[in-house]
Amino acid sequence: MEIDFKDPKYYTNRELSWVLFDYRVLNEARDKSIPLFERLKFLSITASNLDEFFMIRVASLKDMENAGYTKKDIAGMTPTEQLKALHVAIHELVDLQYSTYNRSLLPLLEKNGLHIVREHEQLTAEEATYVDQYFQENVYPVLTPMAVDSSRPFPLIRNKSLNIGAMVRKKNSDEELEFATVQVPSVLSRVVRIPSKGKACKIILLEEIIERNMDKLFLNYDIVCAHPFRIMRNADLSIDEDEAADLLKEIEKQLKKRQWGEAIRLEVESGMDKRLLKIIKKELNIEPENIYEIDGPLDLTVLMKIYGLEGFDHLKTPKYEPQQSPELPAGCNIFEEIRKGDILLHHPFQSFTPVVDFIRQAARDPEVLAIKQTLYRVSGNSPIIAALAQAAENGKQVTVLVELKARFDEENNIVWARMLEKAGCHVIYGLVGLKTHSKITLVVRREEDGIRRYVHLGTGNYNDATAKLYTDVGMLTCAERIGEDATAVFNMLSGYSEPLFWNKLALAPLWLKDKFLHLIEREKNYALEGKNAHIIAKMNSLCDKDIIRALYEASAAGVKIELIVRGICCLKVGIPGVSENISVRSIVGNFLEHSRIFYFANDDHYEIYCGSADWMPRNLERRVEILFPVDRPELKEELLHILNSQLKDNVKASILQPDGSYEKQDKRGKQLFNSQDAFCLEAIQKAKEAAGESAIESRTFIPETHHE
């Protein structure tokens, strides 16, 4: 019987798969084997993830529903059906978040000397005096209380802002209750430490301090009730680039709209006065299913601030310092080292500094004629931006593609673009209708035997801050054919010239998807011929139906397919005759898994590729992405070792089950293997060996901060 690989029953809905991913992050917060403050951090990450999910994905579904769009997704669900399923799934997720916080983490924090004041009424007389004085001196001058009456309309409630709503009545009167609100200022620390005797640490959240002192904001009024609330708005930018004469100005204009997009989620303190809730609900036009009654502090991203409190290092995992690459010792001439052979960097286990030094040395080198680079997300005080500016000031030809549409980094990127232009760089803003997500740098250098091109290609952004938190790989090369392709990439981005052929690189949106489909089909044909056929693919998300269909066909032909997919996975495993040969694992650990690595056995002549693209329609069809082969045998072995180590991980890996759930492996009687810890130890060992030092003992590490 012929199998219809288009049948929706073979696919998982993308949005529901994402919810399962946030559950996997939440499971880290619930894992008793993890140090207490790390568990706090993971809980904070689930909240941050959920905020972005609402602002973009739920907002997009709401837009479709409002427009009467009824087309079904690959799992056969309409936007309305997806929203209904999501409301149920996310309410359950939020309940589990707060159950974890209240029943598991809070008691442990108390036991370990950190007391969080839940209600200001719990304060002693001495503590109350301190808190009230703190309010008067530090908080009161910053606040803007707003009342609503016939002359004062309901105020703009900003996206993601924390507010306190109140019902008030004029003193000594029988007048009707009035609504009033005050925004909890984000410019002040939300975590306030109360002086206490002994070793114990006592903190109170800023909203509790304000709520306690509401009567000072509305003089001549009685405060009948006061409760915190928070809203999430549609933050998806919709820009008609063909109509936008100046993309820079149009994006600046759209950014302001994020503050007053449609309200799509309302979080309120559980037990909020019904009269107060009714007003907020009516004014924000919020449906009941989008209201979340919270038993605990609103916006759990505050836990990241608590994580940063001093004096609790014993409840955290030791911070890991990225190691120097043995191939690029400190102070070396990077160009000389690259000429010896391609160099692979594995971040954050190995330092990102060589990538920064690559640009810095190019900026200062009198033989360097030009530097060209794509920038998607960069850090707040980026050394790469500074080096590019210096290169332009030194008379180099500097071309920088700054992607203005990098979500939630638009404002940052506008600032960088203007700064680079002032320094004399040629700044371009990408192609109309496409995001440029590729990670590539080209340095053109004049040498004795002519012009040589040096190229850096990577799976992650040119961001020195996230390079300490995200797992990525990068390659430095001066291979002539890759250099030719790199030139063609920048000519395509800055002009309109599409090369007739590519030597080594494959680019989205025109060629990359076909390349992947060809590689998968090649393995399928090898399997049908009885030859060695095996695919290992590591990425962040998998939801492209054409790729999934090709994987199903390859699996049905007998190809062994091992997928390492951190987040969304719309493919199902264990379907008889369809996906029996496919396994999927998700690794959620101290570092954010971000690298994209693809292995194809190719009948014992295996090929390995790395790139910037996930197997998603947006990456393969609506973005400029680059896939590059790794040809040097030692580097191929290193990448295969990375993949095999992750396939061996039985500590941080969750395995996708045929019913769509994810389960941690049964570790009873097995030797524990945490791939991220193993990579940390290997990097330290290599650095020590390069420096002539002795071996190290086993440990567990963690980065300074972590964001999903």
Fold and architecture overview:
This protein is α/β, with parallel strands linked by helices and 708 residues long. Helix content is 36%, strand content 21%. Strands 14, 18, 19, 20, 21, 23, 24, 25, 26 and 27 form a 10-stranded mixed sheet that branches. Strands 10, 11, 12, 13, 15, 16, 17 and 22 form an 8-stranded mixed sheet that branches. A 6-stranded mixed sheet has the order 2-4-3-7-8-9, with helices on both faces. A hairpin with a 7-residue loop joins β3 and β4. α1 runs antiparallel to α2 and α10 (353-364) packs parallel to α11. The longest helix has 33 residues, at 79-111.
Oligomer: single chain
C-alpha Rg (nearest Å): 27 Å
Report strand %: 15-25%
- Distance between termini? 43 Å
- Characterize the largest beta sheet: strand count, sense, and whether it forms a barrel: 10 strands, mixed
User: Would you count the extended β strands for me?
Assistant: 27
Ranges where pLDDT stays below 50 over 5 or more residues in a row are 239-245, 704-708
Helical/strand content category: alpha/beta
Mean pLDDT: 91
Helix content: 25-40%
Summed up, the helix count is: 18
